[in-house]
Amino acid sequence: MNDYIGTGWSFPPHFNKYTGNVDMVSGRDEIEDSLRILFSTNLKERLFHPDFGCDLRRFNFSNNNNATILRIQSLVSSNIKEYEPRIILNSVNVNVDELLDGKFVIHIEYTIKNTNSKYNMVYPYYM
After folding, report:
1. How many Å apart are CA 109 and CA 76, to the nearest integer?
2. How far apart are the first and last CA of the chain?
3. Closest CA to 37 of 79, 70, 71
4. Which of 34-38, 100-104, 120-124 has the weakest average pLDDT?
5. How far are the Cα atoms of 62, 64, 88, 108, 127 from residue 102, in angstroms, in the given order?
6. pLDDT in tens, 20-29
7. CA 125 to CA 127: how far, in whole Å?
8. In 10 A of CB 29, how many CB atoms?
9. Ordered domains of the chain (ranges, CATH)
10. Which of helix, strand or coil describes residue 29?
């Protein structure tokens, strides 16, 4: 399974103080770390991949209405489908109940393609 999913650095990177090596993750943890990177990256932040990232900061001063929620859902969904080929995206929901406290919460449900295992992930975005 991990051959298909891969192994990579933990996010945020953490170094083992005893060995000096970077902590590695694989499986579901690798996928969810990749999704967190995708969600937290702004457009043009990566020199050789300027289109990578969800650029959620553009919604910092948006109106709290259904149109904004649908735009966030669409943006997250299209970015996951483009940049995370190891999963099948089942659903994306955005909860704005805590928007006045400065955050919205993205709930995603996904299936890992090679194992057909279903998982969910919650990503709080703080403005």
Report:
1. 12
2. 36
3. 79
4. 100-104
5. 12, 12, 30, 20, 5
6. 899 888 889 9
7. 6
8. 15
9. 2-126 (3.10.450.40)
10. helix
